[in-house]
């Protein structure tokens, strides 16, 4: 009997099994390859401290990062690419590199750096699934990690700051979406009628942009103009995730959005309160440490202490 495979990942919303791109990549690949994963969604019992998910756990191994997880699954004979030719395999690697270079920075920026999106959607959503007080720390740490990743890949001379690279990030992302749309054409998947690794990556990167309701949606608006990419995401959701999602009605989604808005207000109030407390502590006058009063012993007490020290 094969060892059980458990995938720890961020959960879903807005009709998605997960709103986290890297989690979606692994979940989609597992569906395509038939890997029997037990999916465990992060909740407020989680004890991680860095947000490094998804994580695949077996009886004697732990694997993180989508590329490493997919390689592990292939070694376990769960291969979604066994029908691909050598050229298609090379194209897969090229397109994944394109996604990570051109599209991923815009995805990270949309979720974690764009202020309105972060404070109204991303931060409260993730904070609601992380135990207190880590919920007040980890979203900010993940936001800084996303910003550093953007600057590492895109912040080259003469562009150093995210404000300077933002326009370039979104230009590159829109060009990448156009290339993907042209490559997909009228096909169901990128290499015909069978989904592969490339389909898992494209779905993982596009579906959150397509479905999550953000206040700032410039990339989402461009994606929705590319009907074949939207149909691609809808088809995968309908064919591979319908049972796990169970269906969310428009009225139900409105309730989810209303609850998220309330949660946003609560998380922001908690964050503001902690920031004010921290500022007050920093600005309060720092008094010198008080010296403990020295008790003066009477002669009788001094003599008694001397005798005690001399006694064996």
What number of structural domains do the residues give? 1
What is the ordering of alpha helices and beta strands?
A: EHEEEHHHHHHHHHHH
Number of helices: 12
Under CATH, the topology is which? Answer: Glutathione S-transferase Yfyf (Class Pi), Chain A, domain 2
Strand-residue fraction? 5-15%
Q: Nearest-angstrom radius of gyration?
A: 27 Å
Low-confidence stretches: 247-260, 289-312
State the CATH architecture.
Up-down Bundle
CATH C-level label: Mainly Alpha
Strand segment tally: 4
Shape: globular
- Share in helix: 55-70%
Largest sheet, strands/sense/barrel: 4 strands, mixed
Average pLDDT, rounded to a whole number, is 81
Spatial strand order of the main sheet: 2-1-3-4
Class computed from helices, strands and strand pairing: mainly alpha
Question: Termini separation (Å)?
Answer: 72 Å
GO biological process, one term: protein transport
Family: Belongs to the metaxin family.
Organism: Sciurus vulgaris
Main location: mitochondrion
Explain what you see.
- This protein is mainly alpha-helical and 312 residues long.
- It has one domain: Glutathione S-transferase Yfyf (Class Pi), Chain A, domain 2, CATH 1.20.1050.130.
- The chain has twelve helices and four strands; from the N terminus they run E-H-E-E-E-H-H-H-H-H-H-H-H-H-H-H.
- It has a four-stranded mixed beta sheet, with helices on one face.
Task: Write a compact overview of the structure shown.
By secondary structure, the protein is mainly alpha-helical. The chain has 12 helices and 4 strands.
């Amino acid at each position: 009997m094969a060892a059980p495979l458990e995938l720890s990942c961020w959960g879903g919303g807005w009709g998605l099994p997960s709103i986290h791109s890297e989690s979606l990549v692994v979940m989609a690949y597992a569906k395509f390859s038939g890997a029997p994963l037990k999916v465990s969604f992060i909740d407020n019992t989680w004890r991680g401290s860095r947000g490094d998910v998804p994580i695949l756990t077996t009886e004697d191994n732990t694997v993180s990062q989508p590329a490493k997880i997919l390689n592990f699954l292939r070694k376990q004979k769960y291969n979604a690419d066994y029908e691909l030719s050598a050229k298609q395999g090379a194209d897969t690697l090229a397109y994944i590199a394109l996604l990570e270079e051109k599209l991923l920075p815009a995805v990270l920026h949309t979720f974690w750096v764009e202020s309105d999106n972060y404070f109204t959607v991303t931060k409260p959503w993730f904070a609601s699934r992380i135990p207190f007080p880590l919920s007040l720390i980890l979203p900010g740490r993940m936001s800084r990690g996303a910003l550093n990743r953007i600057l590492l890949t895109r912040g080259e001379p003469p562009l150093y700051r995210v404000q300077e690279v933002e326009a370039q990030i979104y230009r590159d992302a829109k060009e990448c979406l156009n290339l993907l749309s042209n490559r997909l054409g009228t096909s169901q998947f990128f290499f015909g009628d069978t989904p592969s690794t490339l389909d898992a990556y494209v779905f993982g990167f596009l579906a959150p942009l397509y479905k999550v309701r953000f206040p700032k949606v410039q990339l989402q608006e461009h994606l929705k103009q590319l009907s074949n990419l939207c149909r691609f995401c809808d088809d995968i959701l309908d064919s591979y995730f319908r049972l796990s999602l169970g269906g969310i009605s428009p009225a139900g989604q409105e309730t989810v959005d209303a609850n998220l808005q309330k949660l946003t207000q609560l998380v922001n109030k908690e964050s503001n309160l902690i920031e004010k407390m921290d500022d007050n502590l920093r600005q309060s006058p720092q008094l010198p440490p008080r010296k403990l009063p020295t008790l003066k012993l009477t002669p009788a007490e001094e003599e008694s202490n001397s005798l005690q020290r001399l006694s064996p």
